[in-house]
Amino acid sequence: MAGAWPSRAGGRNSRDFVSSNALCGRVPRERADNRSDADFSRCAGPALNVRRRRSSCVGRVGLFRCKHPARPRPPIPRIWPPCGSFSPKGLLCNTLDRGEPQATTSDEVLTSLLWKVMPMGRFKFLHPEWREIEPSAWLTRWAARYGDGDNPVYFVLIAKQGRLSSDDFEQVGRWKEGCLKPSNGRWKTGTPTGYDIWMQARAQAPKCPEQSELPGFLKDWKERTFVAGKKGDLILRHRFGLSRATTLLHFISGGRYPIFDARVATALIRLGSPTEETIDGYLIFCPLFSEIAAVCGVSGIEGLRKLDNALFNYGADTSFPQA
To answer: How many helices and strands in the chain, by DSSP H and E?
Structure first.
């Protein structure tokens, strides 16, 4: 594996950028920068005994933290290649090199590699009494606070794998707005529930967009406005917003894309991985959600829904100690 790292001797290896391909024994991808080989070798890291000058750089397999001014940390990928089902194999390849996993490599081996690439210390999982606990215990305790609530309706809708009828789109809106009871008086036009835009979704029945079309899809629905009521003679107009747009995307994608709202954003801050409530922030959150799922040891529809419930309650709790 040492041969996959850049060397000071020149040749192809000196022009290669280290990625998780090195972990799977494949040829690494080309470097995407124009820095000199000397600068890159200084930042390759001590993990594989690469000869280098003394510096303040710290290397990791595939991902770098580098204090050297000539080698800043590469940006986080903006696009998440979604997969139909979650596994450590899919997470490792999708979030790091976006390649196809080797069929002979077991999930157990890839999980061990995943821990090397993405250490648990990146997140801070706190008990409801605000002491640090294991990720799986954190998940169980915070998800339990959600209760059953609207989960039965959720599982019925998500089981349709994006093949939603007109009535299903309306049910998604009712689920999101907390208006599942037929007698709920808020589910009508002129209220803050976004009723008019949900009716547009019912009429248009949008399909899950291609990966390259995600930003445009989210922007389109996020920016749509509706009349939310009146204040005196003033008509109040609200935007549909990113939270509702990602909810729509979540259901039409059959759960491949997670829901992102203010409570989840607060939960990420408390976990130590703050993410902006923007479209770009959402595209970063998608692989982050899968990473947290791997750390907590959950997968599948029920496991990921449990994580969503835990994030919701973790961000909604008002007793979190202030720094």
So the answer is: 13, 4
- pLDDT tens for each residue of the chain, 323 residues long: 444 444 334 444 433 433 444 444 444 444 444 444 444 444 444 444 434 444 444 444 444 444 444 444 444 444 344 444 334 434 433 433 433 343 334 444 444 444 444 444 678 898 877 888 999 999 999 999 998 889 999 999 999 999 999 999 999 999 999 999 988 999 999 999 999 999 999 999 999 999 999 999 999 999 999 999 998 899 999 999 999 999 999 999 999 999 999 999 999 999 999 999 999 999 999 999 999 999 999 999 999 999 999 999 999 998 888 75
Q: Using alpha carbons, list the distances in angstroms from residue 55 to 2, 70, 208.
A: 20, 11, 48
Place of tokens 């594996």: 1
Assess contact for 134 and 123: CB atoms under 8 A.
no
Whether pTM > 0.70 for this model: the answer is: no
Query: Could you say which DSSP state residue 148 is in?
Result: S
Find how far residue 191's CA is from the centre of its chain: 31
CA angle 100, 246, 242 (to 5 degrees): 130
- Asked if 82 and 72 count as a contact pair (C-beta separation under 8 A), the reply is no
Kindly list the domain boundaries of the chain, sorted by start residue.
Answer: 1-74, 78-147+256-323, 162-253
